[in-house]
Write the structure tokens for this entry.
Amino acid sequence: MISFDEAYNLINSTGIYLKPENIPLLNAFDRVSYNDVASKVNYPAEDNSAMDGFAVNSSITSKVNTGGLKLEIDKKVIYAGGGLKTPARQDSAVRIMTGGYLPETFDAVIPLEDAVVADNRLIISPPVKPNKNVRKKGEDIKSGDIILNKNARLTPENISLLVSCNIKKIRVFEKIPVSVISTGNEILNFNQKPRHGKIYNSNGILAENFLLQNGCAIVNNVVCKDNLKEIEDALSYAVKTSKIIITSAGASFGDKDFTEKALESVGFKIKFRQVAIKPAKPFSFGLINKKIPVFMLPGNPIAFYTCLAVFVKPFINKHIKINSRMQIIKSRASFEYIKNNKRREFIPAHTFYKDGIVYSEIYKKLGPAMISSLGYMNSIISIPENASKILTDELLDTYLI
């Protein structure tokens, strides 16, 4: 049995190769960019008006006299996204709407609310400064500027930015193909009717949704009976199609724990067996053919989830470096806790903000099989190996979900 840190480091010394793929931008939500993305256009595309008003040539307005300068107002009106087909007279004013392109040599806009108009003439006094109320071409983004960095998760916000910069396709990391294999005679698939002594495959559903949130694609999510041949067949398919394999249950040493034996039939070599953590002590890890990582997770729900959170997710993040949806912060304990072992403990918790301080409260029902905590928790508290007691207000590492 090895320590948490040893297990963590061994797992993350392993690498998998992820391919890039080019996909339509409008299908890219929640994917992760493979490289920096540069704008294909200037933004704004042209000098344009920042408000409704009158476009003028500022150098003409410098000729203001004591009675004010009177500029004839052109009959044409410039609307958003448009300009003039024929040049305007330099000594005129042109009615322009917000977003309209300034006529050539015109470089300032007088807002409607500040304009003085008489007899179809705009009266200027005092002179107008250049670039007044004008959004300059490329002042926000110039063609070639980097607008999205590598390893960025594609969100509604940055997809909108990319659309504005004429990006139609984007190169992203492939979704990591993962197989999830749950074992146990007592396991029912989701669409089966409940039966005495049976439980539903909640771990498989939990893993699938967790992995989908974190840059993966589920190749296969199956339930196998405690039958060596059935597990071997599922693993043979997984080896051909997946870059990560996750198993649920069958990782201990009971008469029906066939998972490791089945794994050996497809080239599995163990890296470590059991970790000094609570829950999830039976967690083991190894490689198939020196390249496919296999996470052998225990079957109890909270133990299973703990391994996903503290081992599987960091391994995924190492490869596609996404902004983690599970961050580790410090929070203050709003509880006292006695610890009577030398293992790293992970406890379901609810983390909250009060009076400028982040606190965490642990779930009242503790235990690796207490599935009700999945409806309560929004975090996991980590209690160090050398701790024997946690006091109120003590700072603890907290995995925010």
User: Anything to note?
Assistant: Residues 327-400 form a domain with the Beta-clip fold (CATH 2.40.340.10). The mean pLDDT is 93.
